[in-house]
Design goal:
The chain has 10 helices and 12 strands. With 305 residues, it is α+β, with helices and mostly antiparallel strands. Strands 1, 2, 3, 4, 5, 6, 7, 8, 9, 10, 11 and 12 form a 12-stranded antiparallel beta sheet that branches.
Length: 305
């Protein structure tokens, strides 16, 4: 079993040890004992940045110290950080920071640099991991699926069982899906204080005009979402409530409660693009609709009582 967080740590530490060298994605993947496809996919999905772009940014950021605090020639700095030519270094530096190395050496400008990725920001869940959240605005969305009432005492594999049944045996009855490969696990937790939730394995559809018998349609308003991406080496059908529950606790206790945002509604959904799930690799996004506390209070102040 591949330990996702350990793999990322090996990757980051290898990059730090080789800032003065020329290395390729193949070199990093070989060091991490993982395919370069999975390494590239996993790193970009977690951080939003391609691995080799991160490596380049770290090189350029590290080189600023030599520019400012030494009298080294720029050509020598270029060679010290693995660039074959001085001009290659200058072009990359200007693209990254907006200034030439010489301008930075002689000027007083501020630069946004890339520091080593903080491994403490990565939260491990079994053989999977999440990093920092990102934000998405989604327009009005329609879902159709099989709705189930799940009691708290049902166990952590109940939603998983309903999801498998829907994805492999029921979703083909939905005639107007936008993308049948994308699975939505819609959860209405408005009844959680009474010991139950509604869980609806579903797909996104064009509209709610063709809801099959014994299925349900949901219209989701346009919202801003905080999204946590759960990346690791597992099959989508292996996800259980315990894993998702640990992720939700992390979301709520470590981030949302300290973020200046609050819940915008009493639902969330999981999203899995099964077309990229292969070789036991999976990405699961948890979407939570949010609103800022400022916007919420402003909205209340504008209500005409």
């Amino acid at each position: 079993m591949i330990d996702t967080k350990d793999t990322i740590a090996r990757c980051i530490n290898f990059i730090e040890a080789n800032l003065s060298n020329k290395i390729s994605l193949d070199n990093v993947a070989l060091h991490c004992h993982i395919s370069k496809y999975h390494l590239h996919r996993m790193f970009k999905s977690l951080t939003g940045e391609a691995l080799m772009d991160y490596f380049q940014s770290r090189k350029l950021s590290a080189s600023i110290n030599d520019l400012i605090h030494t009298n080294m020639r720029i050509v020598d700095i270029a060679f010290n950080y693995g660039f074959d030519y001085e001009q290659s270094y200058i072009r990359a530096f200007r693209k990254k920071f907006g200034y030439t190395p010489q301008k930075v050496r002689s000027g007083q400008m501020s630069l946004r640099v890339t520091e080593k990725l903080n491994l403490n920001d990565i939260y491990a869940v079994d053989n999977s991991a999440i990093y920092k959240p990102f934000f998405v605005f989604r327009p009005k969305t329609y879902l159709v699926g099989a709705k189930h009432k799940i009691m708290s005492k049902s166990g952590d594999k109940t939603a998983n069982r309903f999801g498998r049944e829907f994805f492999f045996n029921q979703k083909q009855h939905i005639t107007n899906p936008i993308n049948p490969h994308v699975y939505y696990g819609y959860t209405d937790w408005s009844g959680s204080n009474d010991g139950y939730i509604y869980y609806m394995p579903s797909v996104q559809v064009q509209d709610l005009s063709k809801v099959p018998p014994e299925m349900f349609g949901v219209e989701i308003p346009a919202y801003k979402y905080v999204v946590f991406r759960f990346v690791g080496f597992f099959r989508p059908e292996e996800i259980n409530g315990r894993q998702v529950g640990r992720l939700l606790v992390h979301m709520y206790s470590k981030w949302i409660l300290n973020s200046g945002f609050t819940f915008a509604d009493t639902f969330r959904f999981e999203l899995i693009d099964t077309s990229i799930s292969r070789d036991n690799y999976c990405e699961l996004d948890i979407y939570q609709p949010i609103t800022s506390l400022h916007d919420m209070f402003q909205h209340k102040d504008n209500i005409d009582y």
